[in-house]
Amino acid sequence: MRNDTKKLTLTSIFIAMNVVLSQMIYIPVGPIKAFPMQHFINVLCAVFVGPWYGLAQAFISSALRNFFGTGSLFAFPGSMIGVLLASLLYRKFKRIEVASIGEWIGTGLIGSVCTIPLMWMMQIDMKGFMPIFYAFLLSSLIGSIIAYILLVLLNKRNLLTKRNG
């Protein structure tokens, strides 16, 4: 199977997993819903499909969750920045822990700050930013740790012999 076909197939599977798992596991905080499984999937995308397919996964997953009424607009900046940073760092260093940390920094720190313009446009009181900030940090930390553990286990069993990025 061609590499692009493989990446497209994996991306589709990650989107489906993300949408289904996000129905089951989320943390409601004010106007947002934090989805640890988004961050789990983002780290997997960083390792298996790279930044551009990862960005597509984050965008489509966020759009589908919004369409189904299970997500919020806050999903876009967090998930897309997180997967992009995780993927670019993984591509450069080829280390699982760097991808996990990239997801946490990209979503938890940078992505949460990028929600400020959304809060302003949605006329949400800025006092609500700190709970959103902490929710992004916690959610991305949980998802990144779960992905890290899974990827380390797969790597120990030599199931990550060919990593794309």
Automatic annotation (TrEMBL):
<feature type="transmembrane region" description="Helical">
    <location>
        <begin position="101"/>
        <end position="120"/>
    </location>
</feature>
<keyword id="KW-0472">Membrane</keyword>
<protein>
    <submittedName>
        <fullName>Energy coupling factor transporter S component ThiW</fullName>
    </submittedName>
</protein>
<feature type="transmembrane region" description="Helical">
    <location>
        <begin position="12"/>
        <end position="29"/>
    </location>
</feature>
<feature type="transmembrane region" description="Helical">
    <location>
        <begin position="132"/>
        <end position="154"/>
    </location>
</feature>
<feature type="transmembrane region" description="Helical">
    <location>
        <begin position="66"/>
        <end position="89"/>
    </location>
</feature>
<keyword id="KW-1133">Transmembrane helix</keyword>
<dbReference type="InterPro" id="IPR012652">
    <property type="entry name" value="ThiW"/>
</dbReference>
<dbReference type="Pfam" id="PF09512">
    <property type="entry name" value="ThiW"/>
</dbReference>
<keyword id="KW-0812">Transmembrane</keyword>
<feature type="transmembrane region" description="Helical">
    <location>
        <begin position="41"/>
        <end position="60"/>
    </location>
</feature>
